[in-house]
Recover the amino acids of this structure.
């Protein structure tokens, strides 16, 4: 275990190390996230390279719905807050409150996916596809759908993961001394939020 | 008492008295930065607002938001240094890949 959420207390206990048995799941999740970050990094680097080298790349703000995506970003940020509040509630010995916050997080994820489905449907009806783009370079559709789709898969995975955590929480499997699974799931969800922050900036705003 | 039991007790005691970071404060910062990003992103570029300034502003705000999420929501600020190194390594590699690709794109 680590000294999570202990503001102002950063002294490392000699027995506390990411290589202690209590932290295996957290360390494993961090290693997974590091690998996953490389995948997203590759997609964003490819997007940047293709865009920079293409003379007829469309202006994303003219093609994509920035206002709706702004709301989607706000939604993911809110879901990150509810996730971290849920973990804090569990650490404070309030498992029921934790379940409420995790439920809200799942709801935020589902709403995000629904909004993304609406956005994709609209763009596909406008003529944007994996190999076609009515507004210019065809690679725009490829990189857009690949990057946002890959992220959407992560959100879907997160919704499933957190639903399992919620069910286990409702069954009383977690407590103030047994919160590692919730913390590990939270790491994944915050990563999904963090990646969206970058995708939103690079794909939609710049 | 063996070492494992002593360690477990230590963490239980620590968490009973632990204080959580100001998550709502982080939330308001994230919200403010998102609104600023939307404003900067929607302003038309020109002589008074060059495209490079827009990119620099948006990227710095996005990196700040990502750092806030990693440091406070993912608790990286309160973790041991090893996890920080694990988290930082892919970021450095991604930046490296991006800058390696850019000269090739510029020469097309």
């Amino acid at each position: 275990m680590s000294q999570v959420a202990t503001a102002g207390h950063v002294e490392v206990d000699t027995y506390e190390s990411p290589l202690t048995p209590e932290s295996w799941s957290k360390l494993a999740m961090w290693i997974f996230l590091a690998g996953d970050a490389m995948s997203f990094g590759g997609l964003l680097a490819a997007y940047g390279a293709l865009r920079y080298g293409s003379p007829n790349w469309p202006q994303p703000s003219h093609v994509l719905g920035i206002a709706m995506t702004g709301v989607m970003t706000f939604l993911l940020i809110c879901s990150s807050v509810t996730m971290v509040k849920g973990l804090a509630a569990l650490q404070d010995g309030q498992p029921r409150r934790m379940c409420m916050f995790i439920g809200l997080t799942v709801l935020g994820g589902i709403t995000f996916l629904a909004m993304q489905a609406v956005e994709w449907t609209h763009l596909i009806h406008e003529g944007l596809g994996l190999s076609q783009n009515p507004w210019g370079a065809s690679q725009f559709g490829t990189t857009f759908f690949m990057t946002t789709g890959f992220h959407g898969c992560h959100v879907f995975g997160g919704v499933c993961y957190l639903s399992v955590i919620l069910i286990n929480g409702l069954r009383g499997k977690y407590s103030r001394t047994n919160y590692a699974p919730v913390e590990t799931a939270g790491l994944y969800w915050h990563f999904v939020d963090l990646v969206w922050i970058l995708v939103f900036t690079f794909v939609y705003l710049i | 008492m063996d070492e494992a039991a002593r360690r477990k007790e230590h963490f239980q005691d620590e968490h009973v008295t632990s204080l959580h970071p100001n998550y709502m404060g982080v939330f308001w910062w994230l919200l403010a930065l998102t609104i600023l990003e939307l404003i900067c992103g929607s302003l038309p570029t020109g002589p008074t607002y060059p495209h490079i300034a827009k990119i620099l502003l948006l990227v710095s705000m996005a990196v700040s938001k990502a750092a806030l999420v990693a440091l406070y929501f993912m608790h990286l600020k309160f973790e041991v240094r090893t996890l920080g190194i694990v988290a930082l390594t892919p970021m450095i590699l991604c930046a490296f890949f991006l800058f390696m690709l850019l000269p090739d794109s510029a020469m097309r």
